Automatic annotation (TrEMBL):
Membrane topology: Single-pass type I membrane protein
Cellular component, GO annotation: cytoplasmic vesicle membrane; secretory granule; synapse
Subcellular location: Cytoplasmic vesicle membrane
Tyrosine-protein phosphatase domain segment(s): 82-342
Name of this protein: Receptor-type tyrosine-protein phosphatase N
Top-tier EC class: hydrolase
GO biological process, one term: regulation of secretion
Domain Tyrosine specific protein phosphatases: 261-333
Pfam families: Y_phosphatase
PANTHER family the record matches: IA-2 PROTEIN TYROSINE PHOSPHATASE, ISOFORM C
EC number(s) from the headed UniProt entry: 3.1.3.48
InterPro entries (alphabetical): IA-2/IA-2_beta, Prot-tyrosine_phosphatase-like, PTP_cat, Tyr_Pase_AS, Tyr_Pase_cat, Tyr_Pase_dom
Main location per the UniProt record: membrane
Length: 352
């Protein structure tokens, strides 16, 4: 099915702006490298002015892009249609949905929330020989896209004080080099995630030594940390980069779609050319984590030239692997708007 260019363009300019205006005004940044100031002796940098990343070169099918924009028009303009879509998603049940391992009494203290558990078939399995408690359990789920043998993401909870070593073991054994953190350590007085990295220098978590190499504060919305991760059993070392988004409230959405899209572009620019899973976490590894994975998976599929995109079916696919991903209708609506804004930007940049 082909849809003319004017349909998507007029939809975006005429209809989506009103929805996006419900979010806080988007800040614009420009880079001035003369204003990079070291803020302490451990190579922490503050970027006082920042230019957003432009959409990367894409193989997106133009007609598919306009069809997706038309889908957004239907759902962002028509509240009843969005409500029906969300109600259908809420009634969706994953199958299989066994959480026997996560529910075992020996593992219950490793779960931040008793009602958010990884499914047995998609849980990340640790090597118990290397584990500090001789356990293979961590509250984390492998999320695959097109290749079931190679997970695209690991969706996980924010580590607890006694699961930090498990977290780093998972990062090491899965070969991950990118961590996407979507929560603060505490929000409204409630612990969301234990600090799993040193504020300065190095800390040891069982057999994993983590050294903070640098911390770059790019803007009000996010910062980037670089770590050296060393396995003391093998003496191997790996560089791990953590992208930390700071302005996404629990059970809510970011105030700026543009800020999250800029953040995602930075993550993907760092990840380009790799095939290891990206570790994504918030507090429970479901709401914010699922929303980020949904946006990223849909946009990555489109960038690879997919001819058909079904966002609701994509969310069901993610929910087959991690329970309760995208927890609220507001988060689903935000995901639709974020995909639409990025598709619109890519279409503008493509030769017509």
């Amino acid at each position: 099915m082909h849809r003319s260019k004017s349909v998507g363009s007029s939809f975006w300019s005429d209809n989506c702006d009103s929805y996006l205006n419900t979010f806080t005004h988007i800040k614009r940044w420009s880079v001035d490298y003369t204003n990079v100031q070291p803020c302490c002796s451990t190579e922490k940098l503050v970027f006082n002015h920042y230019r957003s990343e432009e959409p990367v070169t894409s193989n997106m099918d133009i007609s598919t892009g306009h069809i997706v924009l038309s889908y957004m028009e239907d759902h962002l303009k028509n509240k009843d249609r969005l409500d029906r879509e969300w109600e259908a998603l809420c009634s969706y049940e994953a199958d299989p949905a066994s959480t026997k391992v996560a529910s075992d009494s020996a593992n219950s203290r490793k779960n931040r929330y008793s009602d958010i558990l990884p499914y047995d078939h998609s849980r990340v399995v640790l090597s118990n020989a290397s584990n500090i408690t001789s356990s293979d359990y961590v509250n984390a789920s492998s999320i695959t896209d097109h290749d079931p043998r190679n997970p695209a993401y690991i969706a996980t909870q924010g580590p607890l004080p006694h699961t930090v070593a498990d977290f780093w073991q998972m990062v090491w054994e899965q070969g991950s080099v990118i961590i996407v953190m979507l929560s603060k350590l505490t929000e409204n007085g409630e612990a969301m995630c234990h600090r799993y990295w040193p504020e300065e220098g190095s800390d040891l978590y069982h057999i994993y030594e983590v050294h903070l190499v640098s911390e770059h504060i790019w803007c009000d919305d996010y910062l980037v940390r670089s770590f050296y991760l060393k396995n003391l059993q093998t003496n191997e070392t790996r560089t791990v980069t953590q992208f930390h988004f700071l302005t996404w409230p629990d059970m809510g959405v970011p105030s700026s779609i543009k800020a999250l899209l800029d953040f995602r572009r930075k993550v993907n620019k760092s990840y380009r050319g790799r095939s290891c899973p990206v570790v994504v976490h918030c507090s429970d590894g479901c709401g914010r984590t699922g929303t980020y994975c949904l946006v990223d998976m849909v946009l990555n599929r489109m960038a690879k030239g997919a001819k058909e995109i079904d966002i609701a079916a994509t969310l069901e696919h993610i929910r087959d692997q991690r329970m309760d991903t995208v927890k609220t209708k507001e988060q689903f609506q935000f995901a639709l708007a974020a995909v639409a804004e990025e598709v619109h930007a890519i279409l503008k940049a493509l030769p017509q």
